[in-house]
Specification:
With about 180 residues, this protein is an alpha+beta fold. About 20% of the residues lie in helices and about 30% in strands.
Length: about 180
């Protein structure tokens, strides 16, 4: 069992104005189908982006750190061309492990009341940790079994997938003040 499954990054939390700017960029992607990936699971709608969608949101220094953290997307069955995406989901997200990414940076944009992530034991028989993250920005461990509670309303996020550093390494960097400080 792991000690930590997620950590909050208050330096990356968005106020309502910035969240609205980023949500409008999601709507443009959705309307134009820009970056739409039809290879993701049926309950997910993924729109790949570049890190430049964060330009009105964060400083150039923070964007550069996000880009470095989320570098080198793999060639995989999801046809990723970038590590960055808008993700829309609705309803229950079944228990799963992310097959490729080691961790994920998650910025919630819509439906703050239904962002309850559940981390399960290895046997997938019991929830061992829960996170109700509302509108806060987190980095989460993704190689352990996890799910999301059912929601009738859609949830929308901007995500940066972390492929080259495991969760514990990223947590250590952040704790030592070498990331987003």
């Amino acid at each position: 069992m792991h000690k930590d499954y997620f950590f909050h990054i208050p330096e990356l939390d968005l106020d309502d104005e910035k969240r609205d700017i980023l949500y409008k960029k999601y709507l443009v992607s959705k309307i134009t189908h820009k970056g739409y990936n039809r290879h993701t699971h049926q309950y997910l709608k993924t729109f790949h982006t570049e890190v430049d969608v964060l330009k009105q949101i964060y400083s150039d220094e923070i964007i550069q750190q996000i880009q470095e953290l989320c570098k080198e997307p793999p060639i995989d069955k999801f046809n990723r061309s970038t590590s960055f995406e808008f993700l829309k989901t609705q309803g229950k997200v079944e228990i799963h492990r992310d097959p490729v990414r080691l961790a994920v940076l998650v910025i919630p944009l819509l439906n703050k009341d239904n962002n309850k992530l559940e981390f399960w034991n290895e046997e997938q028989t019991k929830i061992i940790k829960e996170l109700n993250y509302g509108t806060k920005t987190y980095i989460m461990r993704t190689r352990v079994p996890h799910s999301v509670s059912t929601s009738k309303k859609p949830r929308v996020f901007w995500q940066g997938s972390i492929f080259t550093r495991d969760f514990d390494e990223v947590l250590k960097e952040y704790s030592q003040g070498r990331l987003f400080k």
